[in-house]
Design goal:
Layout lengths: L1 H21 L2 H5 L6 E7 L8 E8 L16 H14 E8 L1 H7 L1 H14 L7 E5 L9 E5 L7 H24 L5 H4 L5 H10 L13
Parallel strand pairs: 1-4, 4-5
Antiparallel strand pairs: 1-2, 2-3
Helix pairs in contact: 3-6, 4-5
Length: 213
């Protein structure tokens, strides 16, 4: 029993250390920025569904669960993290439909989704921390961070919120457009998804501008 308690304690310490390793916001706050938003997106690569972005402003940093790049977390871990993020942060969501993706291309659709997520916040941020190298069309301070979801706690939170929000939407679409397997692959180009497209044709939420071989 004592050994198990020690292992649990060490695990908690390791988790707090991991969260601190993602925490970069103290650097920008020391420069006078108070309302800092981390921004990330989900859904650039799928064949179906919208691209969704999230802007997250942290009110608290004391997470009891692992916060990391959403791709490094399994389904259960993402759901737990998502719940804590909503309790500890101000969150904005930006959605750009598959029709708009087809109309303006995925790059500009991603930019638009990020901008909409910032506009969805209750207050204008002092600084934007943006995953990747895409600058937004705002007259405000911005810092682009390649692999930002591994370096900034707020960007990591944004990646989780965007991913969970989009996954839940595709799970909802699975009931409206059955037979494509959206619940499982979330619109990505798996073999079963490709086979379903060949058999059934495109659904209303498929992106027509993406080349499907």
């Amino acid at each position: 029993m004592v050994k198990r308690q020690r292992l649990k304690k060490r695990s908690g310490l390791s988790q707090r250390k991991r969260n601190r390793s993602l925490y970069q916001e103290d650097v920008v706050r020391s420069s006078g920025y108070g309302f800092v938003a981390g921004i990330d997106e989900a859904g650039r690569g799928p064949l179906a569904g919208p691209v969704i972005a999230s802007a997250v402003v942290l009110k608290r940093h004391d997470f009891s669960v692992r916060i990391d790049d959403s791709k490094k977390l399994n389904y259960v871990a993402r759901q737990r993290a998502y719940k804590e993020i909503l309790d500890r942060a101000i969150v904005g969501i930006g959605v750009v439909s598959e029709a708009v993706v087809d109309d303006i291309n995925i790059y500009h659709a991603t930019m638009l989704a990020m901008e909409r997520s910032v506009l969805d916040l209750c207050e204008v941020p002092d600084l934007l921390l943006i995953d990747g190298n895409m600058r937004l069309r705002f007259d405000m301070q911005q810092s682009t961070i390649v692999s930002g979801d591994q370096k900034s706690l707020s960007i990591a939170c944004a990646s989780i919120v965007a991913k969970v929000t989009r996954d839940r939407l595709l799970e909802f679409y699975d009931g409206i457009f059955p037979g494509y397997g959206f619940y499982r692959h979330k619109g990505y180009a798996t073999k079963k998804h490709m086979s379903a497209i060949i058999e059934k044709g495109f659904s209303p939420i498929h992106r027509r501008s993406f080349h499907i071989k």
